[in-house]
Amino acid sequence: MFMRTATWQSDNGFTIHLGSPTYVLDNITDSLSGEAQPIKAPGQDGATTYTVSLGQPRITVSGYLTAAGADLDAVRMNRYQLEDELRRAFMPNRFGLLTDNRPNGSRRIRCRPLELPSFGNRMQHMERFFVDFVSDDARWEAVDETITELGREVGGFRFPLVLSTRMGFYTKKARITNDTGEDIYPIIEIYSASAFVTVANDTTGKKVQITRPILDGQKMVIDCEHTTVDIFQQSTDGAWELLSDVSMWLTFDSEYWPLIQGENNITLQNEQVGESLVATIRYREPV
Hints:
By secondary structure, the protein is mainly β.
């Protein structure tokens, strides 16, 4: 029998796993609201257009903590310790990542607790608790990430074909199918040291193009959802460290493009295929 679990990883270093003997997940509920605002479009004689904005998801996690001890006093002291641990982990307005492991697939969302955990009924060694979260992201996303890689030769041959792969084969073109019913804004990572590398979605006619090369051991990360462009430096231990914001390196006609519903033909332009990886397209599907 599958047991639903959850994990909270806060940005300040605390991790709480709801699925251990100490903490048990009871339920996760969430809500998503929409709000329609009429806006009069300028230059159209008062014609009204409508934009729909999604409200912030509210998430409530309920669970049980289980205190242990040889006698009632020891159980009480352990319960106080566990309550303090939850309060430190779920500090209000400190962001983290909440992962929900469900029978039909794991999902995750970046969010923050609204207030300290509240505690409810006690049953022998167990005590119920509740944590309310709010997220700046409109929806949950899948834990598993899809990666499409571009710019490397395959077995010494160049492939002008449009290939679709998750891992292992690298070409100048890829076809990505988005069957989620929603547009997905990917993260584009560029490793090339050549200038004017262009990654385009030919289906929509939109592209991102950089105007200057990056150095060896660096990568550029273009987040199309959050509209940011950053340079990362790889340290001696292999970790990537943020160096600076380089949004000004994009050309004026660059656009943060989405993977629209249906097929998306992605191309890598102005770059010779070689042995090293040039770019990756990374995304998680909304769930």
